[in-house]
Structure prediction request, 467 residues.
Amino acid sequence: MGNFLGIDLGTSYFKVGIFNEKGKMIGLGRKSVKKFTGDGTICEVSVIDFWDTINACVKEALQKADITSEEILSFSYSSQTNSFILLDENDNPLTPLILWPDRRAEETGLPVLDLQYKKDFMEKTGLGINLNSELAIAKIFWFQKKQTEIWKHVKSILSISDYLTFKLTGQKISDVSTASMTGLLDVLKCQWWSHALKSFYLNSELLPTLKRTGSFIGKITESGAQLIGLNADVSYYSGGFDHQCAAIGCGVTQSNNISESTGTVLACVSYSNEYSPGINRCTFPGLDNNHYFELSFNGNGAVSLEWYKENYAKEYSIPELLDLAKANKDGCEGLVARPSANKYEGLSGFENVKSCHKHGHFILALLESTANDLAGLVKLVKAPDFSGRIISTGGGAKSSLWVRIKSDRLSTIFNIPECNETACMGAAMIGAVGTGKCGDWNEITNNWIRFKEIVRPVSEKKNEFLK
Prediction:
């Protein structure tokens, strides 16, 4: 019957998952992304390293799956957002791939970002968040003002996944999911918003054609196949950005569940049949004209654990620190971590610090802080028909202690997927549905989505955050 490939273009790692017709991941390739950071304000990936990393991931996944490239039927992607490349009139790169954490535009005046204060901005774009220098449009404005010699040669602006699509299929196409996070998309019309383009001194000819997630783009070309190590003629489908694909990969689109991801960023995603943009959340196109994803997020994720380890407990691994936290049966001894404690100077992000507090207390306080913030994020995206179940993904799902704390804090059942790589799985599902080999979205969700653990709270009394 064949197999289905999904790539996750993450910021720290690229991953390629290969799934069989029953939804079992039979091979995974995972490689760190080689980034150039310069003085700390730059975050770039060279074109050569981009393709070398993807090729190595595909090769590793095929080896682990013990199959040949001829046995891959379809390909789709899960992408980071607001990472892009500029091309000239001959489609040659004018820049490396510039990733969203790049801060080169921080010191540049950004009057164009005032668009967010226009009355219809949130209604048009679905973005209820503040625009900042991490957005692609801020760095594009920087090129317009600071790199005029480069800018005058720009003929195409492609996101990282648009560039993947172009080089593999020869077509300049962007999915409306990834495009929605730029602030340039009219979500209801699934078109580039002319008013936003004018505000950012852009024209639509610089941008790719828009397609909905799951659209058939074409077959991988001979030149594209050589770049990634697959056969030509593999069917290629438009994917989406990472949190959307992770939600697809844990069944949110066919249930009333919410997915949460505790990685570098803490995020929640739900699926609705209503378009209702709101403050502190993002609403973007669903898999059809009648549905929308809703996303809420903040920075109080797993990054705080890495920060604590690197600065105060280098001799321990993260699993060892989690074991120390688990041993504190009496709790944190009054210790409280403020949201994103890692952003404060020293240990000033903690309250009530005492000499009796050890590593386990600090780690436990950080876990509890994340759980508190998660409750607020769930409330932002929770639909009236919310099932009462949350699907836990990301690195945080690997810690049974962390999931238990979240479950108890929210008084909510948490399901942990059998497949840890839900973004890869969501991308593979997009391709599998597109080929028609695994049925429609209902069928593939019922057949592919499995959970290895169900965590129930100590008390299922309704939490005040979820009322």
